[in-house]
TrEMBL record:
Species this chain originates from: Streptomyces lomondensis
InterPro entries according to UniProt: HAD-like_sf, HAD-SF_hydro_IA, HAD_sf, PGP-like_dom2
Stored SUPFAM superfamilies: HAD-like
NCBIfam families found in the cross-reference section: HAD-SF-IA-v3 (TIGR01509)
GO molecular function annotations of the record: hydrolase activity
Protein name, per record: Hydrolase
Signal sequence annotation: none
């Protein structure tokens, strides 16, 4: 019998399970440079953490006055990102350990991400996490990306789980807001620690302000056991 009762766990992908943000940044920097924006820095990238690629490039078009269509920008950024993702994406070691702990107890798990299905597949396959995480939902498959709850509700549906029995792991404020809107508990691991005091994170059941440096598989597991009302 699992210590976790009927809990299901839904993982965000980028910045939560894997350190993919450097690849997203580089893909964005190269794409924008091709369109004449040559001063896009890491601080500029941080404002898009947790937002879907579609929404990111739509904002670029308006912010930088780009002539390319949103579709062209989306395709170019995705192509560059996939090249980088397939070459090298690192899974956070404690997250990998957490996935293994949950798998050993037969806990239903899913990935719900703002990335494209192709990007999610490339990253999960490249890190080997696809052997444990087979239920995957992309924001491309639902009506609205985060902070709307759609991806998390669809993940719960595919797992056959009630939203109230789901716990989400998230690194970004829009994702924490989406989990709250879905009626799910949230373990928040801010990718940008300076954003840990964002109001969206205040709804998390467990907030680790130090981000991945503070996250351990054991801490998260013990919190889940307590949240299941068992010890």
């Amino acid at each position: 019998m699992s210590n976790l009762g009927g809990i299901s766990v839904i993982f965000d992908l980028d910045g939560t399970l894997v350190d993919s943000e450097p690849n997203y940044y580089e893909a964005g920097r190269r794409t924008l440079a091709e369109h004449g924006v040559t001063d896009f820095g890491w601080a500029d990238h941080e404002r898009y953490v947790g937002i879907s690629t579609q929404e990111t490039v739509a904002d670029w078009k308006e912010r930088y006055g780009l002539r390319a269509s949103v579709e062209e920008l989306f395709t170019a950024k995705n192509r560059r990102y996939l090249e980088l993702a397939r070459a090298s994406t690192r899974a956070y070691p404690e997250m990998r350990e957490f996935v293994e702990l949950l798998a050993a107890e037969g806990v239903p798990m899913a990935v719900a991400s703002g990335s494209s299905p192709e990007a999610i597949e490339a990253v999960l396959a490249g890190t080997g996490l696809n052997t444990r995480l087979r239920t995957v939902v992309s924001a491309d498959e639902v009506a609205h990306g985060k902070p709307a709850p759609d991806v998390f509700l669809e993940a719960a549906r595919r797992l056959g789980s009630d939203p109230g029995d789901c716990v989400v792991l998230e690194d970004a404020a829009p994702g924490a807001a989406a989990a709250h809107a879905a009626g799910m508990r949230c373990i928040a691991i801010p990718y940008v620690p300076a954003q840990a005091d964002a109001p969206e994170f205040s709804t998390a059941g467990l907030l680790l302000p130090g981000g991945q440096k503070e996250f351990t598989a054991r801490t998260a597991y013990e919190w889940l056991v307590r949240s299941a009302g068992l010890s």
